[in-house]
Amino acid sequence: MVLLLIGFLVVPVLGLLRSSFLPTSHLLDGGGFSLTHYVRFFSDSYYSSVLFETFVDGLFVSLICLALGFPVGYSLARQPPLARRWRTIIVIMPLTLSLVVVVFGWLIVLGRNGLLNALLVNIGILSSPKIFLFSRAAVIIVLVQQFLPLMILSVMSVVTQINPVLEQAAANLRANRFVTFRKVIIPLALPGILVGFNLVFVLSISAFVTPRLIGGSRVSMLGSLIYERIMAELNWPSGAAMAFILFVSGLGFTAAFNALAASRLIMKGRGYAI
User: Fold this and answer.
1) What tens digit of pLDDT does each residue of 2-18 get?
2) CATH number corresponding to 46-267
3) Which of 30-34, 62-66, 164-168 has the lowest mean pLDDT?
4) DSSP letter string over 208-229?
């Protein structure tokens, strides 16, 4: 396991870090050392604003996935094994599709002559077709659709291990459903919630296909900027620097978020390690 982590995580990250210090002019010969790309990133307010917006979008996607995915994951966990198996297959099915296929499907649905405009015009909500594409709301909706199954599966895997007798005991102690949900289910399911939240957040801030195709030039996320810097401009050192900044900042945010959640549990005397 340690060798796998070193081979598939540590080595690529070290290679990314090394490339980020190369001057653009020395890309071919691999020589030189420069902090130019980092200085340019942190001295330009545009990149800072894009990084901030990327994190805000990631938080929105994660919170929406949590709000939609927790009830579904909880209900699946309380289903009989056979029914749960088939419903889980339905949840997993979107993950089997290619990301490009999913994004192009959304381009058709959200297009000016797409399914959503046709439906809204036919039922009288809109008098004429509107442009739903190339907006931040459209990017968030598509990202939620892509990553919602991960939240559902994370919550379901933890809730299935919570004994239903605990909920019955809370009801016998005159606790209503809301109190049982807040004081019994949420604390016990918090590890699964954090895993799903972290997965969705990390995948959202690193997305580049969806922001590029659904958001276009109107929506800037750091993943799409990294893609353009490397594939369009062939500026590998600058793209590597932005990728490493995104990696470190995302890792730091998730570590701080998990540490805060764990400390809150300890303060409440729950005693669960995250």
Assistant:
1) 677 677 777 888 888 88
2) 1.10.3720.10
3) 30-34
4) -HHIIIIIGGGS--HHHHHHII
